[in-house]
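Hi team,

As requested, here is the filled-out complex form for the nicotinamide-adenine-dinucleotide run. I kept the field names the same as last time so the parser does not choke. Let me know if anything looks off before we queue the next batch.

— J.
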Amino acid sequence: MSKKERVKVGIIGSGFVADIHADSFRMMPDEAEVVAVASPPQCGAEDLAKKYDIPRVFTDYKRMLAEDDIEMVTIAAPNYLHAQMTIDIANAGKHVVCEKPLCMTLEEADVMIDTCKKKGVLLMYAEELFFTPKYVKAKQMADEGAFGKVYMVKQSEKHFGPHAPWFWDVEKSGGGVFMDMGCHGIAFCYWFLDRPKIKNVYCQMATHVHTDKTKGEDNSICIIEFDGGAIGLVEDSWARRGGMEDRIEVYGGGGVTYADLHMGNALPTYSEHGYGYAVEKAPSTKGWTYPAFEELWNYGFPQEMHHFARCVRGKEDPQATGEDGRVVQEVLYAGYHSAGIGQKVELPFTPKDVKTPIQLWLNPKKP
Ligand SMILES: NC(=O)c1ccc[n+]([C@@H]2O[C@H](COP(=O)([O-])OP(=O)(O)OC[C@H]3O[C@@H](n4cnc5c(N)ncnc54)[C@H](O)[C@@H]3O)[C@@H](O)[C@H]2O)c1
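And here is what came back:
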């Protein structure tokens, strides 16, 4: 493919995940190229541009959206900005890749989906677990019947808490670890089981360790019951010491599989002296550590962005959409409400006047 035909991409944000987006396009450059990045003044857009050779830098993303040649824009900004940014991108006639979680409220999700439809642009939901090679392999085996009828799928993600202050501010994030990482597990179980209808949600959560920093929960367990009886178990923590953990378990009448994203893709290492970089959220490189290789590839980010660029060219259909993000959003609502009232919550669950999902836990109102 000639350089000219590659999808031209703009990135909004220049923090943690913006770097991952830029690096992902660099790793798989045949379908897309990043031509611009936008982030407020003194927020590091220049540095990101320098690191990845991105020619244009903007301090106002709306100015970036005025660039005619940009066809797809990725949103790598805090959660509370996702909805407005999506609407602005769609109104500028560009395809949207929105980071997880999709947004703050179900009303926002609906407007995002509707606006993109009306403007004839794609709304792609950046859930990289649909592209994580180990997890994709587990799904392929399940689809081939390896485990018989799958009755339970587990996904968990745990570490000692996020890197940027806005995550701890529930007005900006919408919630604690359940919102931040539970959204991955909800999407994962739903996708793994081929998107069955969700019957009900039960959730427990608490703030065990980080009460000085946040009103958000730092530990959560969520059980999702799907039509047909299968269960999704989503376990997340910002209170877990020892670095990052991301794993799945799949149980069926005819078999089982386990996948640990970090342990199987790492070098068990002991070092008295330490070294440069081990893996995301590793607290130290001294003593026993588990440095990852091909980290982004093993998470699935380059494959995800490559797929989205191919969707823009009409070569593939989006595997992760705004509609998926909306399903996750409803389960987030139901999960917070369940933890608030101490009961299972039946779906559909679409309360109005919710500003942040966590409100349904912090100020629970019994139906
Ligand atoms: N898929 C994943 O595994 C994954 C991992 C981390 C973060 N995320 C998601 O990505 C999003 C960003 O998280 P992060 O970790 O990169 O946060 P971050 O704090 O590292 O970066 C956020 C960026 O947004 C920029 N920003 C803030 N306001 C802006 C505005 N008005 N216009 C343009 N840019 C603005 C900031 O300058 C910063 O560069 C969040 O929604 C988060 O949930 C996803």
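Two things worth flagging: The CA atoms of residues 136 and 295 lie 16 Å apart. The mean pLDDT is 97.

Thanks,
J.
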